[in-house]
Amino acid sequence: MKKSTQLVIVVAALAGGIAFVAIRSFLGPKTPAAATAPTAPDSSGAAESTPSKTIPEVLPDFSLATLEGPPRALSSFDHPSLIVNFWATWCAPCRREIPLLRQLRTERGARGVEVVGVAVDFREDVVKYAKDIGLDYPLLIGEEDGVAAADLFGVSTAFPFTIFADAKRRIVAVKIGELHADEAAFILDHVEKLNSGSLTIEAARPLIRDEIKRLDALRSAAGKF
User: Fold this and answer.
1) Residues with Cβ < 8 Å from 156, sequence gap 6 or more?
2) Distance between CA atoms of 1 and 4, rounded to whole angstroms?
3) Is the pTM for the entire model greater than 0.70?
4) Domain contains 34
5) CATH code at 168?
6) I need a surface site. Which of 84, 163, 195, 210 has the fewest CB within 10 A?
C-alpha cells in the first residue's frame, strides 16, 4: 500500500480480527457471501487488502438509483461533512450500524453532517428492508453498479466500510468494518476542525488513525468487537 494511502485509511484491526463480509456476486444465486478475515496491520496501523488498491484523496463521483427511483449523484450532496456508508441487507455488521448512522444524522445534522447509505444489493431487498425498519437517510442503490462504485474507493472486497469527507470533499478517513459511536464522534469532531480551518488534513489523518487504533485495542482487550 502506498504511503499516501496509509495516511488516508483508518481501519479496525482488532486482535482476533473483525470479520469482513465479501461482496456478493450479483451474477449468481442470492446466497450470503462468505466472511473473510482482515490481513495483519502494517507498521502504520493500516490493514492491506489483496490486491492492494489506492484510496483516492477526494470523493469520487458516481450516480446510482435512489430509494424513490431516479438516480442521484454523490456529488449532489453538498453538506460540509459527509458520511458515505457502503452496506448490504445480508451483512450483519452493516445492519448493526444503521441505528448509529441515524443517530449521527439526527444529532449532527444541524452542524452540517449528512449520511448517505450506498446499498450494494438487490433493489427489492433494499426497498423492503428500508421500509421495514423505517430507514430515513438518503440511499443510493446498485447491484453491479454498486460494486463498481465501491471499487472507486479501493476497498471493494469488504463490507461494511464508511467514508468521512470534509467540505472540500477530501477523504479524511475510511473505516473498514463496523463503525462505533466513539470512533464516529472523534472523526466528525476533526472533520469540523478541518472545515473551520483550525486543523490541517496532514495533521488530521494520523490523529484519527492513532485514535481508532487505540479505541480498537480497548475493545479488543474487553472482548467487544
Assistant:
1) 23, 53, 147, 150
2) 8
3) yes
4) no
5) 3.40.30.10
6) 210
